[in-house]
Queue: 2 jobs
Job 1
Amino acid sequence: MKGKIDFEGNLRILRKVAGEEKYLLQHCPFLHGWKPCGIWCPLFEEPQTYKIKDKIFWNLALCKKVLVFEDFIDERGEKIEKVAPKMELDETE
């Protein structure tokens, strides 16, 4: 799957529409109206990357799902290309 966070912070997923591919705005299924899924939501996490056999994938955790992308662009800034840092427990506290 291919996706992006657009310059306004909204999630878009690449879909085929009338024979051509377009990044379509995704809407929150839990709110009334047409509120887009995006960084405004406290349950929208930052994309994380991981590597399997020299291939990079992006995980995007949302309110009730984790989406996995083979190609992901963050238009808020740079394209996310680094592997997510390892989380380590701070045992000094």
Job 2
Amino acid sequence: MDPVTEQNAASSPSRTVLKLLSGLQQGAEARLTDGTTYLIGSADECDIVLQAEGISPKHLKL
């Protein structure tokens, strides 16, 4: 799905923001919707795609 850098354009109201503090995508933000589960990893089908060494294709669910 969309890389984390595009996720910050989401228009749904949210109070939770995932912000990358280091790496190639440092400073990128993703607004998270309450009650939604996000798949995070390096695979294109993830909800939030991270492009960094050591990130598994399906790294975690949040």
